[in-house]
Amino acid sequence: MSVGPRASRPFGVRQLRIAVLVTTNAGGMWLLPQVEELRHRGHEVTVVLPRGAGRLTDELERRGVDVLSSPYDVTVGRYAPIGLLPLRALLRRLRPDVVQYHLIASAYAVRLATLGLPVRRVHMVANPAYLESRLVRSVERLLWRLDDVLICGCRYASARYGELGCPPERRPVAVYGVDTDAFSPDAAGPDQRAKLRAELGIDQGVFLAVMVAHVQAPKWFIHSGRGVKGHEVLLAAWRTFRRRHPDAHLLLVGGGWTAAGEEYRRQLGARFGVADDPGITWVESVPDVRPCYAAADVSVSPSLGDGPGAAVQAGAMGVPSIVSAAGGLPEAVTERSGWVVPPGDPMALVEALDSAYQGWVAGRLSLCGRLARRHILTSFDDLRAAAEVADIVEDVAGRRR
User: Fold this and answer.
1) Which alpha helices (DSSP H) does 119-154 contain, by range?
2) Residue 255: count of CB within 10 angstroms of its CB
3) What is the pLDDT of residues 33-86, one digit of tens each?
4) H-only helix segments in 42-120
């Protein structure tokens, strides 16, 4: 990796017991480098996940990490105060020095379940989209005070918590990085571009835009009931863009997140005539997203509120991105490696696609891609990011109450 050898636990830092909680056992693979860094420093790490099999569970167990099933479903909307008692009992039994939790649903549960317990609370803010809700912001204005520190995955999240009264020293920024060895143009292999296009029936000579994101159903309390990932914005823009450029193709990668998300995906497909449009290919899942980026000329992330997300993976693969000016997405691109457009604006997205297309015709996109990878290597390498998180965890564990 570009960051060199990993550091051991600093002299004078005692071995810690750390419990890590997250609300998914399918996604959340970004957790792995952080867990590995903490274990490498000699700390005892236990990960608490939802019950049942999942990709994250399988990988953690393969690496020899202690994994426990959560006794309480911390999915948003299923809270019952009495249900927090089993979670509290589990944490009392583990006796952690630090509880580290990812995603807002975990935060609500752990904050309440650990009230009065002698533990440090480290809230990892992966996706700041929930802060777009006035209702959630009013709750967080009070509850962030239960966190000893909020590690923000982007500068945007840190700034929003600053607006809620959180002082700078309690909202440091440490990104969720990407494995820049695994996600690289060389790792994809020279034939991946042609191979994936052939497998999906996409012409080898077309301009290909890709969007990698699960479809999330609209929520009444955020973004006026629109889907947060911006699929409908891109599909509306694509109609206009493809009329201008028939030699263009859109690849959408990702099914519905939950049953409600899948129903919303079906509605979008019907509304925009996806099944009958030869210029759109939509796949629900792939075993590896890297060939999708390798096959693409530009990545599109039109979210209404998000972390840097897919733009980081795309940039690591040497693919420039069009992102919306929402959440932490603009932090994943530079002026020379991508485009930033207003969120929820199909025509602005059309103009950015036009610019990328012209760059493709002129042969300039390859330079944008190289600059995109350089930016990711500098700012989003996963080992460097994991070391920053571990430093913060060790620091907060050593503070006096």
Assistant:
1) 134-143
2) 14
3) 999 999 999 999 999 999 888 889 999 999 999 999 998 875 544 455 667 899
4) 55-62, 84-94, 104-113
Both tokens of residue 42?
A: 């000699």
Full-model pTM = 0.89
For 185, 250, 293, 370, the CA distances from 188, given in Å and listed in that order, are 5, 20, 9, 15
Query: Could you identify the residue written with the tokens 């105060």?
Result: 81
Contact 91, 99 (CB under 8 A): yes
| Cβ 41 vs Cβ 391: under 8 Å | no
Domain segments of the chain as ranges: 17-177+381-398, 185-379
Residue 358 has which token pair?
Answer: 């012209």
> How far is 58 from 307, CA to CA, in rounded Å?
25
In angstroms, the CA 172 to CA 153 distance is 9
Q: How buried is 385 (Cβ within 10 angstroms: 0-12 exposed, 13-18 middle, 19+ buried)?
A: buried
- The structure tokens listed for 208 are 């290909």
Provide the token pair at 286: 């792939």
- Looking up tokens 């393969």 gives 62
Query: Same topology for domains 17-177+381-398 and 185-379, yes or no?
Result: yes
**Residues in contact with 193: Cβ distance below 8 Å, sequence separation at least 6, in sequence order:** 294, 295
353, 178 in Cβ contact below 8 A? no
Domain 185-379 annotated CATH 3.40.50.2000: yes
Tokens of 137: 């912001």
Tell me which residue of 258, 261, 208 sits closest to 231, measured CA to CA.
261
Per CATH, the architecture of 17-177+381-398 is what? Answer: 3-Layer(aba) Sandwich (3.40)
Q: Write the pLDDT tens digit of every residue in 250-307.
A: 999 999 988 999 999 999 999 999 999 999 999 998 989 999 999 999 999 999 888 8
